[in-house]
Every structure is written in structure tokens, then in C-alpha cells.
Amino acid sequence: PVKQIRQKEVGKSTIGAQKLWFDDITGRLNTQERGRLLGEFDTGDSIFVLYTDGSYEVTDTDVQQRFEMKEILQICKFDPDVVVSAVHFDGHKGWTMVKRFRIETNKLKERYPYVTDHPKSKLLFASLKENPRIKYTL
């Protein structure tokens, strides 16, 4: 008789990658081809969300989750090599600053701020493009 079963490792799906779309109207992920295609997701792949308040989140591909559209700046398949480029006003220092960083978070469904929590701090621009250009004038 079998006394105990333990999972040794989680392997990649043998079915293949699943295509996921994001519906900009409802704020939901789906597999019914509604909205824009985020990509093909395999076991262990994640979604990256950049928010307008100056925070980001890495989340799973659960189609039951819903996102508030007014809070989202960008949503895409997570790529650990991508660099976030942001221009923000730091309320503590009273300066407008540029920040560039890679996502080193591995905890899912937790928002991480990259702009200070001062009431006057504000995200002015953020991009995931390789060489973004912005013209900022006072």
C-alpha cells in the first residue's frame, strides 16, 4: 500500500503554452481572445503590472483576477531582463528624478512601490521600452 505521496518538482506543461488576452474594458485576463494578446504562457510564467501610482506587481496567470483599469499603466508577460524606466517627482527632496531598475521580485501578488510615499510624490512617466525617450520641461 502507498503511505505517502510527495511532489518532487513541477514540470512544464506537456500540453504547451496557453495564450492569454487582457480585456481593457473589464480588466480581466481571458483565453477567449477578447482584448489584446499578452502572449503565450507556460507553467511558471507570470504577468507584470505597472501601476499609475508608482508601484508594480508580478502576478500569476489566474483568469479569475480582475484589475482596475484606471490604476494600470502597463500590463504584459513578465520578463526578468526588462528594465523599468521612470520619471517621478520625489516629494521628500522636492526634485524630479529618473529611476531605472530591473524587477528582482519573486513574490507573487504583492505590490512594490518605487516612488516615495510622500503625499506630493508622483509618477510622471514610466516605460518598459529598451531605450525610451522623454522630453520633460518645467
Shape: elongated
Q: Helix- and strand-based class?
A: mainly beta
- Name the helicity range: under 10%
The number of E-state strands comes to 10
Strand order of the largest sheet: 6-4-5-9
Q: Describe the sheet with the most strands.
A: 4 strands, antiparallel
| Overall structural domain count | 1
Terminus-to-terminus distance: 75 Å
How much of the sequence is in beta strands?
35-45%
Overall average pLDDT: 92
Catalogue the unreliable spans: none
Give the ordered list of helices and strands: EEEEEEEEEE
Describe the structure in your own words.
With 138 residues, the chain is mainly beta. The chain has one domain (18-127). Helix content is 0%, strand content 41%. The strands form 3 sheets. A 4-stranded antiparallel β-sheet has the order 6-4-5-9, with no helix packed on it. Strand 1 and strand 2 form a beta hairpin. The chain is elongated and about 70 Å long. The N and C termini lie far apart (75 Å). The mean pLDDT is 92.
Could you outline the blueprint of secondary structure elements for this entry?
Layout: E1 18-23, E2 28-30, E3 36-41, E4 47-51, E5 55-59, E6 72-77, E7 83-90, E8 95-102, E9 110-113, E10 122-127
Antiparallel strand pairs: 1-2, 1-3, 4-5, 4-6, 5-9, 7-8, 7-10
Keywords for this entry:
single chain, three-stranded antiparallel β-sheet
Task: Give a brief description.
With 138 residues, the chain is mainly β. It has strands spanning 18-23, 28-30, 36-41, 47-51, 55-59, 72-77, 83-90, 95-102, 110-113, 122-127.
